[in-house]
Amino acid sequence: MSNIDMSLVITAEDKAAEARAAKLAQITVERDRRISGGFTFEGVEYQTRPEDLENMAGAATSALEAIVNGALPGDLRWDDPNVDFAWIAADNSLTPMDAQTTLAMGKAAKRHKQLHIFTARQMKNLAVLPDDFTDDAHWPA
């Protein structure tokens, strides 16, 4: 008679499931790193940490409101009548933006995040997860 508690035995299937779960978590980390790694809009690099994306979404909402209220292309004072609106780029330079450009930047930032989320999801749905999931070939440019 054996005193082995079979509920404590780790099977090959258990090991494979544990390895898959670990790789899924690593893919999530890589996804988040890439989302936060910035993106280029109209030739300028912008930061995309969570707080940056939140700020861009807020600016895009304000820009949409300004457009609805009649802000015209080229009007840099759509947000404040006394100050030209500008966004700080990753290199700390200021990029002047009218409401239409600000809205487009917000949409581009949303798309940047969305593409990485869906790419990671597709990767996680694969029967065999790639070992080289950090390779740029697997991710949006």
Structural summary, described in words:
The chain has helices at about 10-35, 50-70, 100-125; strands at about 40, 45, 85-90, 95. The protein has one domain. The protein has a two-stranded antiparallel sheet with strand order 1-2. It has a two-stranded antiparallel ribbon with strand order 3-4. By secondary structure, it is mainly α. The longest helix has 26 residues, at about 100-125. It is elongated, with a radius of gyration of 23 Å. It comes from Salipiger pallidus. InterPro entries: DUF4376. Pfam families: DUF4376. This is DUF4376 domain-containing protein.
Summarize the structure.
This protein has 141 residues and is mainly alpha-helical. The protein has helices spanning 12-35, 50-68, 99-124, and strands at 39-41, 44-46, 86-88, 94-96.
